[in-house]
């Protein structure tokens, strides 16, 4: 959608401009001392952009700066997009939240649960419940990620080739069938555990719609919202806008992760859990659609009631992720934060110990990106950078502090 720009004086939107500049001053230090390569921050209220700042480099070696149209790997910020795709099909009656996943992916019919033993010879038992669509959307399926490295089943994922990303030689149907061969951590619905569930959900979208995931997402979400910079790969013509991916070394400094060429190739298995590339302007349009109840500039993607339903806590008994979840790959505890259908949902800011508004919903990506939508304040925030992993620095908590202290109306 082109380069975003500030569209209204911050004071007219309830911000103190001087206080907003604290965002820039604070995160500039991250670049100056080598903790981040570069970043972009966008703060919007009432549908207007109040603050847009960039600092540092999209590629450190060549000295090219982050600009407002820079492209970033958004990793798990893909999950809300895939969740919206599934709920589009829900609204059409193509699936129900209570449907067993095996209705769309037969290999999920007889899932087993890990009991004990080594990764090479685990002892398992039949699951007491089918994995259902709502389990995928809420990360209560019993699936996991290889990179968690806290459980024997995580190790089994790595042994099967699922550490970070999906194997390039498999299509999505084959990937999901491989997941089905691995045991669950727990019975579906029993706990919360961050996982490959959104990749499985992407396969459900394919089967329920009769289209490849990337095509469905393009036709039903990206094109209607005019998100032309977003996709599961980029054209060579966009290459000079792409930010380099960095990883943190043992001292917490950013070093090149060597992932340059993968973005130019259409993946055989598009990852609904982490495969999208996007820009600040595009993802801002996605957050505005969410803020406006599923519609933007005349394009309605979801109904307001569906979106309201997605952004309430769906964990059983109103539990938060800290109570109901396994140890998660994240930089902050999830006290006071529940989970809806594709989004974390703030329930109790005091319990969370980070300033915010109850009802705001959010998620982030593995390269330290984050967004949130605060319906009560009509506020959306996006922070984009390219440092892996996301728990290296407390960016997300500090960003919330800096944004909310600037609201003065």
From TrEMBL:
Q: Name one GO molecular function term.
A: hydrolase activity
The family database entries (InterPro entries) matched by this protein are listed as: Beta-lactam-related (IPR001466), Beta-lactam/transpept-like (IPR012338), Diverse_Enzym_Activities (IPR050789)
Under Gene3D superfamilies, the record lists: DD-peptidase/beta-lactamase superfamily
Q: Where is the Beta-lactamase-related domain?
A: 24-400
**Keyword annotations:** Hydrolase
Q: What is this protein called?
A: Class A beta-lactamase-related serine hydrolase
Which species is this record about?
Halostreptopolyspora alba
């Amino acid at each position: 959608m082109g380069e975003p720009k500030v569209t209204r004086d911050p004071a007219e939107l309830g911000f103190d401009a001087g206080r907003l500049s604290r965002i820039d001053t604070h995160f500039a230090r991250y670049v100056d001392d080598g903790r981040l390569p570069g970043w972009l921050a966008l703060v919007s209220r009432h549908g207007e952009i109040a603050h847009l700042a960039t600092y540092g480099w999209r590629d450190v070696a060549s000295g090219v700066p982050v600009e407002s149209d820079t492209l970033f790997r958004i990793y798990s910020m893909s999950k809300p997009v895939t969740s919206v795709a599934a709920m589009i099909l829900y609204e059409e009656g193509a699936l129900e939240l209570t449907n067993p996943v095996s209705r769309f992916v037969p290999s999920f019919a007889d899932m087993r649960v890990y009991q004990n033993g080594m990764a090479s010879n685990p002892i398992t038992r039949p699951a007491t419940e089918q994995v259902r669509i709502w389990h995928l959307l809420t990360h209560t399926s019993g699936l996991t990620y290889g990179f968690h490295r806290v459980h024997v089943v995580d190790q089994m994922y790595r042994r099967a080739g699922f550490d970070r990303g999906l194997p390039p030689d498999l299509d999505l149907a084959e990937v999901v069938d491989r997941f089905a061969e691995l045991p669950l951590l727990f019975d579906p619905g029993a706990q919360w555990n961050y996982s490959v569930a959104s990749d499985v959900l992407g396969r459900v979208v394919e089967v329920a719609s009769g289209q490849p995931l990337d095509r469905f997402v393009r036709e039903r979400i990206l094109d209607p919202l005019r998100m032309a910079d977003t996709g599961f790969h980029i054209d060579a013509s966009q290459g000079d806008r792409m930010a380099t991916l960095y990883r943190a070394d043992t001292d917490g400094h950013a070093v090149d992760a060597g992932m340059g060429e993968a973005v130019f190739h259409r993946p055989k298995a598009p990852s609904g859990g982490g495969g999208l590339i996007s820009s600040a302007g595009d993802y801002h349009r996605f957050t505005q659609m969410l803020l406006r109840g599923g519609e933007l500039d005349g394009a309605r993607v979801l109904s307001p009631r569906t979106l309201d339903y997605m952004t309430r806590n769906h964990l059983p008994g109103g539990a938060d992720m800290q109570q109901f979840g396994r140890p998660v790959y994240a930089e902050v505890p999830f006290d006071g934060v529940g989970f809806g259908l594709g989004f974390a949902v703030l329930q109790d800011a005091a319990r969370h110990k980070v300033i915010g508004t109850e009802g705001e919903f959010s998620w982030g990506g593995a390269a330290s990106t984050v967004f949130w939508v605060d319906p009560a304040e009509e506020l959306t925030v996006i922070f984009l950078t390219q440092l892996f992993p996301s728990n290296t620095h407390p960016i997300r908590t500090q960003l919330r502090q800096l944004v909310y202290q600037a609201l003065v109306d």
